[in-house]
Amino acid sequence: MAFLPMNAAEVKARGWDGVDFVYVSGDSYVDHPSFGAAIITRVLEDCGMRVAFLAQPDWRKTRDFTQFGRPRLGFMVSAGNIDSMVAHYTVAKRKRHDDAYTAGGKNGRRPDRAVTVYCRKIRECYPDSPIIIGGLEASLRRFAHYDYWSDSVMPSILFDSGADLLVYGMGELQTVEIAKRLSEGYPAEALQDIRGTCFKVRTKDYVPKSAVELPSYERVRESKRDYAIAARRELEEADAVRGKTLIQRHGNYLLLQNPPMPPLDTGQLDWVYSLPYMRWYPECYEKQGGVPGVREVEFSITHNRGCFGACNFCSLAFHQGRAVTVRSEESVIKEAESFLENPRFKGYISDVGGPTANFRLPSCEKQLRLGLCKNRKCLAPTPCPNMQVSHSEYLGLLRKLRSLDGIKKVFIRSGIRFDYLMEDESDEFFSELIKHHISGQLRVAPEHCSAAVLDKMGKPHIEVYKRFCDRFYSLTGRAKKDQYVVPYLMSSHPGSRLKDAVELALFCKAENIHPKQVQDFYPTPGTISTAMFYTELDPYTLEPVYVPKAESEKAMQRALLQYFIPENKPLVVKALIKAGRRDLIGSGKKCLVTAPAGMADKQKPKKNKYSRYSRKKK
Description:
Elements: H1 8-13, E1 21-25, H2 36-46, E2 51-55, H3 63-66, E3 74-78, H4 84-88, H5 114-125, E4 131-133, H6 135-140, E5 145-147, E6 152-154, H7 157-161, E7 165-167, H8 172-183, E8 197-202, E9 212-213, H9 217-222, H10 224-236, E10 246-250, E11 253-257, H11 266-274, H12 292-295, E12 300-302, E13 304-305, H13 316-319, E14 325-326, H14 329-339, E15 348-349, E16 351-353, H15 366-370, H16 392-402, E17 409-410, H17 418-421, H18 428-436, E18 441-447, H19 451-457, H20 462-478, E19 484-491, H21 498-510, E20 519-520, H22 528-535, H23 551-561, H24 569-578
Parallel strand pairs: 1-2, 1-3, 3-4, 4-7, 9-10, 12-16, 15-17, 18-19, 19-20
Antiparallel strand pairs: 5-6, 7-8, 8-11, 10-11, 13-14
Helix pairs in contact: 2-8, 10-22, 21-23, 23-24
């Protein structure tokens, strides 16, 4: 095994007279299957292609892009594991200092809107070379989209970048077909029938009669209602079984999205994860301190793909899809056994998971034939009666892993869907999860407690979380384990008013939850929640949605979640007064903060409806 060549000298050292593809990435090079770039480049290599990996090129000059010469078949371009704007900026639009996907962990090694910048530089160097874009940034920006950082609606990234073809979704099967056809001599414009891809044509060109037309770029830029309609339709057709071709006009051109590529089946997933990954970064990064992002996942295992949870603020449904597919037990065990040969492995598997760790079954038998339901979630606001629920296969896999000689502990650190877990009539998995697979803390994501906000999030109501906690602490007590549930919570999601933030603060007080960090809702391209944020409409009903956008209100909502921090007291007091909850300011048991100097403590606190659900304090 060896890393792919990263520069002209390494290409020459292999005895190659050129390369078939140059893969350009906004991340440092990490050859690990948790990194999409590693998977795609290894798939290309497995197809017999000579691939050079161009990591974080200097976009201000042409030298890095021309060092390999013109690749025989073309360039493949990705911003990296996450959108370059998310990598660069906090939700407050402040520049981040750190970058987990860059050697040395420092920000600034990639440009803003990396896919577009890289493609334009390639076009400057090689005007006629095919350019295929993919990865999360390209996938989620494939249609006209709201861009939070510029506060504007931008056209499809296919137009801004000037690329020939856009691969959306996970991309392995598209990559194989693209490489095959290009190697057979087909031009880039002859690749327009591949599922899971987008391309552009002039409006006079042929368009399939069965295609679903979205409101045009010009319309969604001018009309928020049309934007909301487009966002809903895009997600409705993001299904490999029933999804149709989508078109969206951009001036004199049409963007065409072919139906989604079917997700990889078990055999194909096993193939992808059997490729010869180095599971680390090249030695040239050592002097910079290595790439931080690989350390947490080096000895993790992905056993599934897809998530039928489909939370409105999550991009998974739009990128990876809702259909769950899994690797075979043999494939997962073989990967775990390979860890034993690694001198860095100390016997601890950090995760056996995926988008949602405890999914091993399709959501229902019906979806295999007809696809997932258009406008119905499998788990929220209540579970679908047709949903298949079982942890037996996953539990069997975990048991085999922890029985391997040399494996000391198998952790689960991916998200556990607690609402799905509560639908399982057996406590067998839950009990073994507590006994064997967590270390003191189990992180789950109720996100909020207000029913109004949870409905906009596409999450189950808080009563499910309370039942989950009751069961968790019952089982931990029975196992004599000192363990705690640590909830992920989000402030300022569309639908959240100050009164909802107050309700969440009261919930935290009653549950003895003291969040160390609070995540404001971050409007990233391609999600229903982002469409709500921009349009202030619910895309499914087109009814108005309250959206906290002012920094002052977002700061108050965030402070309420951390009401116990003394520095937050002025903001908490201001928020409570504005919300009409002066009764929560004072020295009473139910109060969130004491009255500041000069404010009388006269109000009688109202009953906290969450008080009977108090938990052990961490």
